[in-house]
Amino acid sequence: MNVDGASIIARGITARGPEGTVFENVHAHVHPGDLAAVVGPSGTGRTSLLLALSGRLRLIAGHLTVSGHVLPAQAKAVRRLVAPARLRPGFELEQHMTVRETITERRITTGFTRESLEEAFALVDIAPKPDALVHELHPGEQLLLAVSLGAAAGPACLVVDDVELGLPQAARNRVWTALRAVTWTGMTVVACSPDPPGPDPGTTVIRLPAEETTEPLPRAWRAIDNDEGASTEQFTVVDAIPPDTHTTSGETTSTFDEWADEPDSEQGEDPR
C-alpha cells in the first residue's frame, strides 16, 4: 500500500457553533506521512478540531489548507482526501455487528479490496475473528479494527478520535505504534488523546489549552472554547518501535490480548 499523504497547514483557525466559540486561533503544520497528535484534556476541542481538519466543521476565521485545498471553500475535495476511522459520537463501529458484517458494510461504502484490508490488518497487527461481535473485542482491538477499515481505502489522511479511551498503558503504547505503522504507507494520520504518545522523533503534537466550554455543536458534536489557541511542536526522544507479528504455519495472529493483559508500563517503553 503506497499512499500520497496529505499536508495540513492551519493558521489561526476559528470555528463557532450556534451557541458560541468551538475553538479559536489554532495553528498546526502537518507534513505528508506524518503522525500528528491533537493533545488536550477531555473537553478541550480535540474532536471538533478533527472535524475541521477533515472538512466537516465550517471555519469562520483563519487559514486552513489540506494538500492545497482551501477550507471551507473546498470542503468537498478535502472530505475526499481525509477519512475518519473513528469520530465520537456519530462515526463508530456498530457494537452488535460481527466483524464480518462490519467489513462487508464498509467495503460497500468505501470499495476497498480484500488485499488492502489484509495489508492494513498486518500493519496494525490484528487478526480479529470474523464471527466475533464488535463488542466482544478488546477496546483497543475495536479501535485498530476501525483504523484498519479506514486505512484499507487508502485515504491521503486518516483521523482517529479518542485513541487512549479506556485503555491501559500497554495497550495505548501498542495503538500509537500501530498508528505510526500506518504512516509507513505514506498516509498522514491525525489522532487525538489527552496526552502525547510515548517518545517518538516523528510525532507532531498539536497541544490544545485546558480551558473548555459546554456549548453543544449541531448533531451532538461538543463545542469547545479555546481562549489561548494552540501550538504545534515536535515531540522527539527515541525511535518508533514497529509492531510485532507472530506467525504460525504462515498465518498472522493477533498479540493484542497479550499486550492488553500486561501491567501498565512507563510511557514510551516497549511493553513487550
From TrEMBL:
Q: Tell me any Pfam family this protein matches.
A: ABC_tran
Q: Give the family per the record.
A: Belongs to the ABC transporter superfamily.
**Which InterPro entries would you find in this protein's record?**
ABC_transporter-like_ATP-bd, ABC_transporter_ATP-binding, P-loop_NTPase
- Protein name stated in the entry: ABC-type multidrug transport system ATPase subunit
Residues of the ABC transporter domain: 8-247
| Residue ranges, compositional bias (Acidic residues) | 258-272
Here the segments flagged for biased composition (Low complexity) are 245-255
This protein's record includes keyword Transport: yes
Keywords of this entry: Antibiotic resistance, ATP-binding, Nucleotide-binding, Transport
